[in-house]
């Protein structure tokens, strides 16, 4: 099979030689694949822009001895362009891409991971939910698909019906008083309800959650991920979280640019025709506030 | 495998970016056959570049003194700063002869997946330069890729409240290309940044 065609999401890119790139993809039928995009860093490249992270593409590749080579690429969805206009969504999306890279194996089909990532990127680009919540929901569900579904209600060890207060990473989630190992955490019941809602996709509960429970839930979700992966996910360190209480418009920043051709913000839009709409005005990042 | 110093030379050349074992061997044999004066010139250039070249204390560009040629030039417009990722981007923009302001080299772009965050770039130094009040415009010329766009977004968020004119280099169609071959993202940006035609 010298030539093949597949749909894929670009996870990451690395420079190769003068003008090439190694592109890591999560494909619909073949799982993770690494391909070479020849000349894609040149300004005249026909498909360089289509092989950027967070793009969903229809690819044609030529099989090589170690790495395949991209011969054609068509855009199916260009979420990366929208996500990069908002630093908060960019950092959250990057963490999702890196997690997908870490949870999948080369040439091992992983349709569920592919569909989950596509849904999460789309949701983040549309800006319908807080990017931090989308990221946490993605992390929990990606772990569940990988076989590490956490329990937020019943006891993860003996199955005793919950709710339980104690949470233990090694045990796999909430634990009953008799199974509770020493050193278990005792998160707020609302936090466990939020995490259960994120895992189940109950967005009504998730969107209505309080900031302190989101923060605690984020800590537990990321700790659960890091526990199951041998190496940490580097992007998580740089993820910026919004404080929805600080600005009523927060959580909708990225959605402004979701339709291409609309007023766009963030560093662009100062062009001679039509002023840009600063999407960043709606964002109140926690870390930046501290620096300012 | 060659013996002694020839193999050492091939090994050292092979450590250079983009030079594989075959290329390293070819360069090594070229040097063996070259005029000794040419080789001495190459050696002295390599030694000098390591001894003399450092980074400009103002903009982060490569320089032979404390300041680079551009920062030391009093004829340059101090009211506009063009922010780029790497020193080689300064050279690319200088070749256009369109920009007469000064530069600021960030030293890369924000890339969480590579572990590069805002604190790893020369953003603090840029803020220090703006404190003087001389600068009125910042032109963000980071690469037009995901990392470059995100870095531009991050910078714009700090710079806009300071009352500066913050602009981003236009993205669009390459001169000499055919419209039908342009990808959707590039063509979309070309539409976004379209300009009025003067009568």
UniProtKB/TrEMBL annotation, chain A:
Coiled-coil zones: none
Top-rank lineage group of the source organism: Bacteria
Gene Ontology biological process terms in this record: DNA recombination; double-strand break repair
Domain annotation DNA replication/recombination mediator RecO N-terminal: ranges: 1-78
Disordered: annotated span: 243-292
Gene Ontology cellular component annotations, sorted alphabetically: bacterial nucleoid
Keywords, ordered alphabetically: DNA damage, DNA recombination, DNA repair
Keyword Isomerase assigned: no
UniProt-listed InterPro entries: ARFGAP/RecO, DNA_rep/recomb_RecO_N, NA-bd_OB-fold, RecO, RecO_C
SUPFAM superfamilies: ArfGap/RecO-like zinc finger, Nucleic acid-binding proteins
Alphabetized Gene3D superfamilies for the sequence: Nucleic acid-binding proteins (2.40.50.140), Recombination protein O, C-terminal domain (1.20.1440.120)
Biased composition (Gly residues): 250-274
Keyword DNA damage: yes
PANTHER family: DNA REPAIR PROTEIN RECO
HAMAP family cross-referenced by the UniProt entry: RecO
Protein family per UniProt: Belongs to the RecO family.
Function as written in the Swiss-Prot or TrEMBL entry: Involved in DNA repair and RecF pathway recombination.
NCBIfam families: reco
Protein name: DNA repair protein RecO
Designated gene of the protein: recO
TrEMBL record, chain B:
Keyword Metal-binding: yes
Domain of life of the organism encoding this protein: Bacteria
SMART domains, per database record: TOPRIM
InterPro entries found in the cross-reference section: DNA_Rcmb_RecR (IPR000093), Rcmb_RecR (IPR023627), Rcmb_RecR_Znf (IPR015967), TOPRIM_dom (IPR006171), TOPRIM_RecR (IPR034137)
Record-level Gene Ontology MF annotations: DNA binding; zinc ion binding
Keyword annotations of the record: DNA damage, DNA recombination, DNA repair, Metal-binding, Zinc, Zinc-finger
SUPFAM superfamilies reported in the protein's UniProt record: Recombination protein RecR
Residues annotated as domain Toprim: 79-174
Gene Ontology annotations of biological process type: DNA recombination; DNA repair
ZnF start-end (C4-type): 56-71
Primary role: May play a role in DNA repair. It seems to be involved in an RecBC-independent recombinational process of DNA repair. It may act with RecF and RecO.
Family to which the UniProt record says this protein belongs: Belongs to the RecR family.
NCBIfam families: recR (TIGR00615)
Protein's name in the database: Recombination protein RecR
Classification of source organism: Bacteria, Bacillati, Actinomycetota, Actinomycetes, Micrococcales
């Amino acid at each position: 099979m010298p030539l093949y065609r597949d749909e894929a999401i670009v996870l990451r890119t690395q420079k190769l030689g003068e003008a090439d790139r190694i592109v890591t993809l999560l494909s619909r039928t073949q799982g993770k694949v690494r391909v070479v995009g020849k000349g894609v860093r040149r300004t005249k490249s026909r498909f360089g822009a289509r092989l950027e992270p967070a793009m969903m593409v229809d690819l044609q590749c030529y099989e090589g001895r170690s790495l395949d080579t991209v011969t054609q690429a068509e855009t199916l969805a260009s979420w990366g362009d929208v996500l990069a206009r908002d630093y908060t969504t960019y950092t959250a999306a990057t963490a999702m891409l890196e997690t997908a890279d870490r949870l999948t194996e080369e040439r091992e089909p992983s349709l569920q991971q592919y569909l989950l990532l596509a849904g999460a990127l789309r949701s983040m680009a549309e800006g319908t939910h807080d990017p931090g919540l989308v990221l946490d929901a993605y992390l929990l569900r990606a772990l569940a698909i990988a076989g590490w579904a956490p329990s937020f209600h019943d006891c993860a060890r003996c199955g005793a019906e919950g709710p339980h207060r104690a949470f233990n990473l090694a045990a796999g989630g909430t634990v009953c008083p008799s199974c509770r190992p020493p050193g278990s955490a005792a998160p707020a019941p609302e936090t466990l309800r939020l995490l259960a809602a994120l895992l189940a996709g109950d967005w009504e509960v998730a969107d209505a959650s309080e900031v302190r429970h989101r923060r605690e839930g984020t800590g537990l979700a990321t700790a659960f991920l890091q526990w199951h992966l041998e190496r940490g996910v580097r992007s998580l360190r740089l993820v910026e979280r919004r404080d929805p209480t600080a600005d009523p418009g927060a959580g909708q920043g990225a959605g402004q640019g979701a339709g291409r051709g609309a007023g766009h913000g963030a560093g662009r839009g100062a062009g001679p025709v039509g002023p840009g709409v600063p999407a960043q005005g709606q964002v109140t990042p926690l870390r930046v506030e501290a620096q300012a | 495998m060659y013996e002694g110093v020839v193999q050492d030379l091939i090994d050292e050349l092979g450590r250079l970016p983009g030079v594989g074992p075959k290329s390293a061997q070819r360069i090594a044999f070229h040097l063996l056959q070259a005029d000794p004066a040419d080789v001495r010139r190459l050696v002295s250039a390599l030694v000098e570049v390591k001894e003399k070249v450092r980074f400009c204390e103002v903009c982060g560009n490569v320089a032979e003194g404390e300041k680079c040629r551009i920062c030391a030039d009093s004829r340059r417009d101090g009211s506009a700063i063009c922010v780029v990722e790497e020193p080689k981007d300064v050279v690319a923009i200088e070749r256009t002869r369109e920009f007469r302001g000064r530069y600021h080299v960030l030293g890369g772009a924000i890339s969480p997946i590579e572990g590069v965050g805002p604190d790893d770039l020369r953003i603090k130094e840029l803020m220090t330069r703006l404190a003087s009040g001389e600068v009125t415009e910042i032109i963000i010329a980071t690469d037009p890729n995901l990392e470059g766009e995100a870095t531009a977004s991050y910078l714009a968020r700090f710079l806009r409240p300071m009352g500066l004119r913050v602009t981003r280099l236009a993205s669009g169609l390459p001169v000499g290309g055919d419209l039908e071959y342009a990808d959707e993202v590039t063509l979309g940006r070309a539409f976004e940044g379209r300009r009025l035609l003067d009568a």
